[in-house]
Amino acid sequence: MTQIYKRVAFIGLGLIASSMCHAMRRAGMASEIVGYTRSKETRDIAREIGLCDQVCDSAVEAAQDADLVVLCVPVGAMEAVAKEIGPVLKPGATLSDVGSVKRTVIDAVGPYVPEGVHFIPAHPLAGTEHSGPRSGFAELFDNRYTAIVPVDESDQQAVAELTMFWQSLGALTETMDPDHHDLVLAVTSHAPHLIAYTMVGVADDLRRVTDSEVIKYSATGFRDFTRIAASDPVMWRDVFLNNKEATLEILGRFTEELFALQRAIRQGDGDHLHDYFTRTRSIRRGIIEAGQDTDAPDFGRVKARQE
Ligand code: NAP
Q1: CA 23 to chain centre
Q2: Which of 73, 102, 232, 240 maximizes ligand 1 atoms within 8 Å of its Cβ, making it the mutation to test the pocket?
Q3: Residue 213: pLDDT above 90?
Q4: Hey, what CATH topology would domain 7-176 get?
Q5: Which of 9, 96, 125, 238 is buried most, with the most CB atoms less than 10 Å from its CB?
Q6: Can you tell me which atom of ligand 1 is nearest the CA of 81?
Q7: What is the DSSP letter of 229?
Q8: Atom number in ligand 1 closest to CA 43
Q9: Ligand 1 pocket, residue 132 CB under 6 Å
Q10: Does pLDDT of 284 surpass 90?
Q11: Distance 242 CA to ligand 1 centre (A)
Q12: What is the pLDDT of residue 288?
């Protein structure tokens, strides 16, 4: 395996950074991996599990001399981290991030990137509802897309290297414009998360259904909402605060469709419901055909239960 970057620094050591560390090791990338996270508790866990070659006690120490620095903190924390490490980034280094929103991260981080440092935002479209350095695994990015979101002045060679780096971690890559990225993600990820949070919140509020019933009968659909709604509250708070317009646009459309379905139910318009569900089913088929999920029944969990 060719060594793309000699020293790679992760700022933030949660699910995404730890999965990147594991995937780098799996790929046999001979790079030196260093990391930093703000809490001593998380640094201790990272040290205990041997996540990086070195866990530093400051972001500056980790970023110094790194050929690639990846910001793996919640979107709302990117600016403060960039401000702190900006002055020590070495000329020729690449600064990237994995934030779930791109436009506000570019606006927040951009001003702190020194001349001669390549700033190339990115976003792996892969995740789980788990957080922290213990939750990472090498396969997380396999066959999943990572959006590479170059800014206007991004150097082509540096973009090619970062693209190759992500491909070595198992990812498929796609270059995207930041605003388009934020709109696509509002449809595919941000709005669905908000809807899941709402549905679980509604069930929680519904005192007519007891807690035990909610849990006992969850496999009827509710369970899949609860998995999404168990995602990290800080990360998702920041996603909505930072992808405001695109999310509100999609939620507006969602509300209109919901009203139309409500009307169809009230008026007994079975044709409308049937046509609608036929269309949505074909989208599911498209996802399976594109290799982005399995067609195993019950979302592939039957096998897991038998083990
Ligand atoms: P995570 O597992 O919750 O880890 C978050 C990391 O950021 C921890 O190291 C945490 O430090 C640190 N952190 C939290 N708040 C901070 C703050 N205010 N200032 C500095 N550091 C802070 O998160 P993750 O899932 O890896 O997500 C990291 C980034 O990846 C986010 O920007 C997220 O939008 C993006 N992303 C997530 C997913 C996903 O499904 N989870 C998928 C794609 C992209 P301590 O533990 O030391 O407090």
Answers
A1: 16
A2: 73
A3: no
A4: Rossmann fold (3.40.50)
A5: 9
A6: 20
A7: T
A8: 47
A9: yes
A10: no
A11: 15
A12: 87
Are 232 and 172 spatial neighbours (Cβ–Cβ below 8 Å)? no
Residue 232 CA, closest ligand 1 atom number: 3
Whether the Cβ atoms of residue 153 and residue 36 lie closer than 8 Å to each other: no
Domain ranges, ordered by start, for the chain: 7-176, 180-267
> Tokens for 163?
């693209």
Q: What is the 3-state secondary structure (H, E, C) of 251-269?
A: HHHHHHHHHHHHHHHHCCC
Inform me whether the pLDDT recorded for 287 exceeds 90. no
- Check whether 201 has a pLDDT greater than 50: yes
Nearest CA to ligand 1 atom 39: 127
pLDDT band at 211 (very low <50, low <70, confident <90, very high): low
For residue 23, report the distance from its CA to the centre of ligand 1, in Å: 18
Instruction: Tell whether the torsion through CA atoms of 46, 122, 280 and 250 is positive or negative.
Output: positive
Q: Which architecture, in CATH terms, is 180-267? A: Orthogonal Bundle (1.10)
Probe target for ligand 1 pocket from 98, 134, 185, 237, with the most ligand atoms within 8 Å of CB: 98
Ligand 1 contact via 127 beta carbon (within 6 Å): yes
Residue with tokens 């020293």: 7
Mean model confidence pLDDT for the chain: 92
Crossing angle (nearest 10°) for helices 233-242 and 244-266: 100
> Is residue 15 in contact with ligand 1, taking CB distance under 6 Å?
yes
The rounded distance, in Å, linking the Cα atoms of 49 and 58 is 19
Q: What amino acid is encoded at 113 in this protein?
A: V
